[in-house]
Amino acid sequence: MDATSVETHHEPHGHDAAHEHHELGWWRKYIFSTDHKVIGIQYGITGLLFLLIGFSLMMLMRWQLAYPGQALPVIGKWLPHIFGPGSMPDGKMTPDFYNSLGAMHGTIMIFLGVVPLAFAAFGNFVVPLQIGAPDMTFPKVNMASYWALFVGASIMVTSFFVPGGAAKSGWTSYVPLAAISDTGQGYNPIFNGQTLWLIGFIFLITSSLLGAINFITTIIQLRAKGLTWMRLPFFVWAQFVTAFLLVLAFPPLEAAIVMQLMDRVAHTSFFMPSGLVVNGTPLSISGGGSPLLWQHLFWFLGHPEVYVLILPAFGIVAEILANNSRKPLWGYKSLVFSVLVIGFLSFIVWAHHMWMTGMGSAVSAFFQTTTLLISIPSVIILSAFFISLWGGSIRFNVPMLFTIAFLPMFGIGGLTGIPLAFNSADLYLHDTYYIIAHFHYIVAPGTIFGLFAGIYYWFPKATGRKMNEFWGKVHFWPTLVCMNVIFLPMFLQGMAGMHRRWYDGGQGWNVANEHTIWGLTGFQWNHPISWAAWIMGLAQIPFIINFFWSIKHGEKVNDNPWEATTLEWTAPSPPPHGNFLTPPVAYRGPYEYSLPGRERDYTMQNEPVEPAERSRRKPAAEPVLVSH
Amino acid sequence: MEIPYTISTRPDTGLWNAKVGIWLFLASEVMLFGGLFSAYIFLRIDAAPGMWPHGLLNVPVGTMNTAILILSSVTVVLAWASLKMRRYRAYWWYMLATISCGVIFLTVKLAYEWPQKFEHFGAYIKPEALGKYEKYLGNERRAEKGLEPRIEITGHLHSQNAKEYEVALDPVNAEPDNPAMDRPHFFPLPVTDKIATIEKEDVERATMFLPTHSAYFASYFTITGLHGMHVLGGVLVFIYMWLPVSKKLYQRNPEHLANRVEVSGLFWHFVDLVWIFVFPLFYLL
């Protein structure tokens, strides 16, 4: 930064060859990079890797649920060498190891898989390109954000290998269970599963905060000339709201984590009630703490977090839907205001996760009302997406297949949530497989389909090559079928009363064995579910191969292979450091597909408005365009 | 490649980048301390009678620290204003004053206030043994007056053996029936010469004034500790901007340095503001 930069600032800085081309070393270019695209890809690969790890943990659990107490064939005898003798002696899973897998599956999928991929990877790679910015506002902070995630993730992974194994009190770490677990004989006071979970989380929260602040500042400050708020692609809006959720919802959880860490390390009693007795012995603690306090602080993050998982997927779906139906997104303004309303309401619905705690009917009534209110903007968004398909000339390429599948899958997840919003219905369904099915329909065939769609869609921008269409379809169809075979029966299991935390899959419980649903008992339904999960694991292999193979050998494409309208497609593929050859200017909205009187069926945002076009437009709607 | 609006303002928002960033960061900080303060409220409302202590902290020292932090908030603004007027010398001195205030605050907290607490002893008496120690607790008179019962005897631990603690009593336990002891004192009263013997089997729990002592001290040490880390962070940033490195930046682009001082000053005001909440919550109420 030199003194002259203040004066020269407002002039478009044409790319200064001398400045652009001083070569960075390999480490600075690919590892400790400050370029938003490299950081985005780092986040993306990290996120995909952890999605695979989290899914693998679940595939192990599915064995125990379908065949409780039986030795896992083939890999069963290797696992004790990796996870320690207490995990799977003779290939048979211990209850503690099952609990570790469950807690870490949730933690890894949400905080190390979906958030880094949906928010950080797509946000980093796509948002600056879509708003015509050269980079994020704070590139060094951006790098720090990724490396904070890296440290947090490393701590989480390390926790599997300490004595006693990883955290085992659920991904929610409810107290007092979490505060007393992994303590005592055989456990290190610091290097034990639950304490490492807490320490790792502090890094993950730091990472999210740095990232989210960067995103918001970038969107406010670095939009290209002419790119007004109502000309932003919907994806940018979705990321903007998501970033606000992270900035405001994560810190209260950080406060709670600091307090739980104090409870575990300094033996305070923030969450420990007076008179707590563990294994028949009263604990020597001051007491006076409140377990309910943890739940309030946890879910104050936990609920906005649900929207952190889904809003970026909404954004991706919106882009691909408009692009492949070749018509403008239906109800752009309604979508924008709905996403803002969701952002606001998501802060005042958290206690609907706590109907079972006996908060009192007045509190329940309040949160029941807000929970039902938040379904309104969600339904508006989904309806607008469906209507966008109406009358379009739809192209069924791989991104679009995932996008179209997203719509009913998310719909099932959302609609099955409504009974849970009523506390009377929830008292029965709480902690059953119904809950598992409900939220997985939102985040697995919902969010993750959105993410796959996004990967197939923006892959050409990152590499200059397309992923293979045929193998993409081989990836899509089995994944879609398996997802439904996995999660649909869980609704039935849950309604039959099967509890979500049974270690034996229900084998030892009457309720899971007495009644049959479509010919199978609740317990027997675990077999098709587990087999579908393992087959779905196999179905990801074409994706993994396709992903890496296409980087070098995919079909070469031009800068705008999907014939899209938004600004990222005006940059070269892959975009150079600094992104655009000349600073882009936006003259129109983000989804000008099939404009009448045009040769092509898409008009990009940086194409100036022609005089003939002006007369066809209503002046009131586009005041910027009529002023000369 | 140059990121726009790092120093000059973007015309339509009227802001440069770091200013947007720091306000967002402060919003997240409000939520962080908000979470902790709501925990304080939650725990205090939930506390059983006699379990939320009063008057254990040193109010004059806390008042002094409050004044020091407020003073430093003034000097950091003066430092920024000096830069805006391009008076580097004055900036240097005001920055030094700000750093000194931060260091004094931390020293008082860590070298005086906290260690004083670590030396103080408290023993919670079992409910059935409260009558036995009535001469140190004065609960009969308190019940008549409608005051919360006392269930803890505090002071300096003189000695202990397998069966008993010998405690040099705090005035509140030395003269429990003195009406002057019904309310906390502004100036803390020193520990008396009066020694009480407390049998260990009558004691529910006995600890020094550590985070384990009670929900009150747990919140006190956690919140003041986290606040202290923020003060330390601010001081380190200020030291960086006061070192000769900053002179070079000043010569190249004084506005850039002024902007840096402005955003870190905003952070400093926030840290000050948190203390304005901490002080009454723990020292006065």
Protein topology:
The complex is a heterodimer of chains A (628) and B (285).
Chain A: H1 4-7, H2 17-20, H3 26-31, H4 36-66, H5 79-83, H6 95-130, H7 139-158, H8 177-180, H9 193-221, H10 234-266, E1 277-278, E2 281-282, H11 291-325, H12 332-345, H13 361-389, H14 398-415, H15 418-421, H16 423-429, H17 433-463, E3 465-466, H18 469-495, H19 510-514, E4 516-517, E5 520-521, H20 526-553, E6 555-556, H21 611-616, H22 623-626
Antiparallel strand pairs in A: 1-2, 3-6, 4-5
Chain B: H1 17-46, H2 59-84, H3 88-118, E1 120-125, H4 134-137, H5 139-145, E2 152-160, E3 164-169, H6 171-174, E4 195-199, E5 203-208, H7 215-242, H8 244-252, H9 254-284
Antiparallel strand pairs in B: 1-2, 1-5, 2-3, 3-4
Helix pairs in contact in B: 1-7, 1-9, 2-3, 2-9, 3-7, 7-9, 8-9
Can you characterise this structure?
The complex is a heterodimer of chains A (628) and B (285). By secondary structure, chain A is an all-alpha fold. Chain A has helices at 4-7, 17-20, 26-31, 36-66, 79-83, 95-130, 139-158, 177-180, 193-221, 234-266, 291-325, 332-345, 361-389, 398-415, 418-421, 423-429, 433-463, 469-495, 510-514, 526-553, 611-616, 623-626, and strands at 277-278, 281-282, 465-466, 516-517, 520-521, 555-556. Chain A has a two-stranded antiparallel sheet. In chain A, strands 3-6 form a two-stranded antiparallel ribbon. In chain A, strands 4-5 form a two-stranded antiparallel ribbon. In chain A, β1 and β2 form a beta hairpin. Chain A is globular, with a radius of gyration of 25 Å. Chain B has 2 domains: 35-40 and 53-117 and 214-284, Four Helix Bundle (Hemerythrin (Met), subunit A) (Up-down Bundle), CATH 1.20.120.80; 120-208, no CATH class. Chain B has 9 helices and 5 strands; from the N terminus they run αααβααββαββααα. In chain B, a hairpin with a 3-residue loop joins β2 and β3. The model of chain B has no long low-confidence stretch (mean pLDDT 94). At the A-B interface, α9, α10 and α11 of A face α1 and α7 of B.
